[in-house]
Design goal:
The complex is a heterodimer of chains A (239) and B (269). Chain A is mainly α and 239 residues long. Chain A has 10 helices and no strands. Chain A has helices spanning 2-7, 28-37, 39-73, 75-89, 93-104, 110-131, 137-145, 150-184, 194-203, 207-237. In chain A, α4 (75-89) crosses α6 and α9 runs antiparallel to α10. Chain A starts with a helix and ends with a helix. Chain B is an alpha/beta fold and 269 residues long. Chain B has a domain at 5-80 and 156-254: 3-Layer(aba) Sandwich (Rossmann fold). Helix content of chain B is 34%, strand content 25%. Chain B is built from 8 helices and 10 strands. In chain B, the strands form 2 sheets. A 6-stranded mixed β-sheet of chain B has the order 6-7-8-3-9-10, sandwiched between helices. In chain B, β7 (158-162), α6 and β8 form a beta-alpha-beta unit. The longest helix of chain B is centred in the middle third of the chain and has 18 residues, at 170-187. Chain B is globular, with a radius of gyration of 19 Å. Classes of the chains: A mainly alpha (239), B alpha/beta (269). Chains A and B meet through α7 and α8 of A and β6 and α3 of B.
Chain lengths: 239, 269
């Protein structure tokens, strides 16, 4: 963050009143005024970005769970998936977003949802794949002594053991999905989302308004995080 | 009458990175129905391996293991035995009742039947009010009682136990031993019990099988002349005959193989 460097208080004769120029970092009061004024637009923008993030989070998580289940069935598939997931994890949104926007058309949210689901997929896949390997030997031997079928073993011990790991992955993915949905709006496609409005406001030098949308983005991210945290707690308590 | 367990000329060899390790060599053992037999010996004598062969969790490299006249494999598929390990191994996301019900659910027993059997078992192991608790709300001894109830769920005539009280404190351990004798008498099940405690083996058993390591084999089988296991109670622990049997087992453990210099009294639990 380049602003962080610029906002560092500089000691000296200039005193403590104007450490940062208002156009660089507006006062909280100015941002607050913008929040009040643009409240309806912030709500609708939050809804657009939030829906993209939610669709991405759900789709990416489901894909991650399914892929982890498939990977857990054989070492070969696991080994084949590992480099693909590693590659997916480092794809720059900056490169992907314009390509997808062009592919799906300028008025489509699909590209953004795909980017969010890609971001969500990786942590859910990794944590679920790990969780599926955490069954205790004593549980496996008990299931053998009960002459349980592979499907019964999966349903009775493997899946319940993996559930808390999966939900930890979903919690990590929730923040990533919001950030990705937001950043993807910087690279074309329909306006109206939080990311688009942040960049539009900044481009027209309406810095207090840009910061107001940043606050909205933070609230949206926190909402996703808290909901998935609650889900994780709930899932860890009763499996 | 068919033996509960018949082990004939069994060898067990494990392939490891450093080569082959002979865990058991030429082991013969018969356990009668309703009999309580303990396997005792130092670490590496193969006592747990022998139990795992009977449970069909491992297969023998040579020889045969029969349980109630069928192969150990068939006996496992038919659920002829119940098993308990040193770790209770309860599923932490299931209540006590649901843990005990697990083997019944897996074999598809009707719901009403499962509920009735679980109530019976909870009463048998003395966990009356704890059916709705979760395992992490129970003490170690209570968790083991749940594990024993679970092992008994399918009314097996054979109970296999691998140091089930090994992680319990002394007082709980003695209490659980008396409880186990009562439960074994009530169910009439034969028990094969792995332990490294001489007093525990003596107190519980009709016969104590003393094993020696490298390679694991049966050194001696010591019959306990202490009366029927079902009639034993805590006062036996202070009886002269009890100490005689402890001495007999200790001598069998330390005798033979020229290991008399091994420290005596370390297995004094």
């Amino acid at each position: 963050m380049s602003t962080a460097a610029r906002t560092r208080p500089s000691p000296g004769p200039r005193g403590r009143t104007a450490l940062v120029e208002a156009y660089l970092l507006p006062s909280p009061a100015a941002i607050g005024e913008e929040i009040v004024e643009f409240w309806p637009s912030m709500l609708s923008a939050g809804a657009i970005t939030g829906l993209n993030a939610l669709v991405g989070l759900v789709a990416g998580s489901l894909l991650g769970i399914v892929a982890a289940l498939i990977a857990s069935t054989s070492r070969l598939i696991d080994g084949m998936l590992a480099p693909i997931v590693a590659a997916l994890a480092v794809i720059p949104i900056v490169a992907l977003a314009p390509v997808l926007n062009t592919m799906f058309g300028a008025d489509s949210q699909t590209g953004r949802q795909l980017i969010a689901s890609l971001a969500a997929f990786v942590p859910v896949f990794i944590t679920t794949a790990r969780g599926l390997r955490q069954t205790q030997p004593v549980h496996r031997e008990l299931m053998t002594s009960f002459a349980a079928t592979p499907w019964q073993v999966m349903r009775t011990i493997t899946l319940p053991t993996a559930v808390p790991y999966t939900f930890t992955g979903i919690r990590l993915a929730s923040s990533l999905a919001v950030i990705s949905a937001l950043v993807a709006e910087y690279f074309g496609g329909p306006r109206g989302g939080l990311g688009g409005l942040i960049s539009t406001s900044a481009a027209s030098s309406a810095y207090p308004r840009a910061w107001a949308y940043v606050v909205a983005a933070i609230v949206l991210g926190l909402a996703f995080y808290l909901v998935t945290l609650a889900l994780e707690r709930w899932a860890s308590r009763r499996r | 009458m068919t033996n509960a367990v018949t082990v004939s000329a069994v060898d067990k060899v494990f392939d490891t990175k450093k080569g082959q390790v002979v865990a058991l060599s030429a082991v013969d053992l018969a356990v009668a129905p309703g009999e309580f037999v303990s396997l005792i010996g130092p670490s590496g004598c193969g006592k747990s391996t022998l139990l795992r062969l009977i449970a069909d969790l491992e297969s023998p490299s040579a020889g045969t293991v029969e349980v109630f006249g069928t192969s150990a494999h068939q006996a496992r598929l038919d659920q002829r035995y119940g098993i308990a390990f040193q770790q209770a191994g309860l599923l932490p996301w299931r209540t006590v009742s649901a843990n005990i019900a697990l083997p019944l659910e897996l074999s598809g027993s009707p719901k009403a039947e499962v509920r009735a059997r679980v109530d019976e078992l909870i009463a048998l192991v003395g966990l009356g009010d704890f059916g709705d608790r979760f395992p992490d709300q129970l003490s170690g001894g209570m968790q083991q009682r749940v594990a024993i109830a679970r092992a008994l769920a399918k009314k097996p005539e054979l109970l296999l136990m691998d140091e089930p009280f090994g992680a319990l404190d002394e007082m709980t351990r003695e209490y659980m031993q008396t409880e186990l004798l009562r439960i074994a008498a009530e169910t009439g099940a034969a028990v094969v019990f792995v332990t490294h405690s001489i007093p525990e083996a003596v107190y519980l058993s009709d016969r104590v099988v003393v094993m020696s390591p490298r390679p694991g084999r049966i050194a001696e089988v010591v019959p306990m002349s202490l009366g029927s296991t079902g009639s034993r109670a805590d006062d036996l622990r202070e009886d002269g005959s009890f100490f005689e049997m402890i001495t007999a087992v200790r001598e069998a453990l330390h005798g033979g193989g020229g290991v008399t210099a091994a420290p005596r009294g370390v297995e004094n639990r």
